[in-house]
Amino acid sequence: MRHELHSPTGTVVIDNAGRMVFFHDGREALRGYGAVAHAYGVDFPITGVAGADVTAHHARIHYTTTRTEVTLRVEIEATPTGFRLVWSGPPHLHAVRVEWQLEPGRPWYGMGERIFQHWPLDSAPVVSDPFEPIDHGRDGTLNIATPFWLNAAGAAILLEEGDGELAVTMDRAGDGLLRITSREAPPPPNLGFDERYAAPGPNLASHIILAANAPAAFHAALPLLGRPTAAPPRDLFARPIWTTWAHYKMHITQRDVTEFATQIVARGYPYSVLEIDDRWQRGYGAYVFDQRKFPDPRAMVDELHAAGFKVTLWTPIFFDPADPAFAVAARRGYLIRHPADGSPYLVRWWQGYGGVLDLTNPEAVAWWLSELRALQAETGVDGFKFDAGEANFIPPDAICYAREPRRRYADRYTEFVADHFAYTEVRAGWRSQRRGILFREWDKWSRWGIDNGLHSVLTQALTLSVCGFPFVLPDMIGGNAYQDEVPDGELMVRWTQLSALLPTMQFSVHPWQYGAEVDAICRRYAHLHTELDSYLAELIDENLRDGTPLVRPLFWHDPNDEQALRCNDQFLLGARYLVAPVVQPGQRQRDVYLPAGVWRDYWSGAIHQGPAQLTDVPAPLEQMPLFERQE
């Protein structure tokens, strides 16, 4: 028997096999493929409907599967923006998986950062298991993750937060499916056999948002996603951030910092913050300067302030076992603990092994804040660059003050940062869209491609924007210059050009080390960024009013344009600027697609009527194709 439910924005039709199809204004927007129960190590797909209780706005449907005692049920409830679905099963289930067809709504966007940041998301297969914020995940999952998927037909899927572990695949082996799995929450560590403990069984709750198109679905989802009500300080957008990391790495000293600042000023570059990166401190977790490298940090900060810089310091959430700060934190119970004996859990990170601050412990958080504030009072630094915070640094068997899925650690981290610091940045997040701080893209490699190189700066900014993170900080211009992968002058220029038309930009590798031509081009684009100050302020105000992204996909103002929906190497800054960066080495001209509207070539003044495909647009080294929408 066929059932229909209605909401203010659409209809869901359920056939006699239990499959769901969602419509908006009579147009198909999303099609369910099925659901799978997992028990005893085996998948059991649904086979039909055992019973249904359906009204106009609510349904409870019971499904049979390929095994008699394994059942699934779903409750469907109409909401103002679409429908809410809750899948569940009996306690002996280990997982429930819901499967959605990628057609007819392709292309798809969202989900968060990936090492190979394809745009649209379904341009390449996706595997994320577990799906949570991860530092350099083996399956490509990265630091900022959000369970939100959006398609061109105006349908969006947003998971509610639960206790189960998540896994996601998209078009794996070309199956044309988005598969979302929730596994049962693991039992508490050291429980052993205890008949009083029974896992409730997995469930998967989600909202299906239905709207006219992708931008409309994005806006409809914002009350559920959350959005910031305040923005970072304006000077972080108005002028570039400078950081010591890519050039100096861990060899940074007080003398290096002051000489770096002197060079920035003398060479006529604009600047806002000078961030002092790794190895300024005595030891990880110790909020005091290394006196051998920084003999007078207060004098250094005062000198930088006098020159007009704000000053921030890099800090992770790790504690070096060799530093006295570790013993203090461990004695007070402020570090996550090992289940074997309750001692601090030593976790591997990129600088060895360390203890991890337990952000679920309110006393630990208050103590950490007091340490940071004391350092600020002593030295005058303005804020901190907060690094790490991903779920993979919390071992599955770790004992924390509060028991919760480890993916929430990233959001606790961002909450702490946003509550206490303005001059700051983070690189991890989980459902953290409501935090009004800079979210930095993951550390980029000094290469050109979509494989975590220059091209991925663009696609990652687009992805974060449509996930609801408006204040995107691209990683350092030229990448991190790791090992023998050092940017050449051409890559440095093209990276600077792209970053200049993003809301924020960040230098580290010295542009002047490449000679006069590269230096002059980079300086010109740094100043072009400052010329956008007033316009960026308008975009920030618009975002705070209604959530509209600052960085927008090419389709944002023409959401039915098929070419714009799939364009992966151009973007819009607000509605006014269309940016077509050069992301291939040696390229001195490129094709540019203009969506609907009247566009003026920023460099030549030529007027073009869109939609239009322009071929061989000039792109000499000193010039990035850029167009301005005419009123």
TrEMBL record:
InterPro entries: Alpha-glycosidase_related, GH, Glyco_hydro_31_C, Glyco_hydro_31_TIM, Glyco_hydro_b
Domain (Glycosyl hydrolase family 31 C-terminal): residue spans on this chain: 547-630
All copies of domain Glycoside hydrolase family 31 TIM barrel, residue ranges: 244-536
GO molecular function: hydrolase activity, hydrolyzing O-glycosyl compounds
GO biological process, one term: carbohydrate metabolic process
Keywords, comma-separated and alphabetical: Glycosidase, Hydrolase
Pfam family, one: Glyco_hydro_31_3rd
Domain of life: Bacteria
Family statement: Belongs to the glycosyl hydrolase 31 family.
Protein name: Glycoside hydrolase
Organism of origin: Chloroflexus islandicus
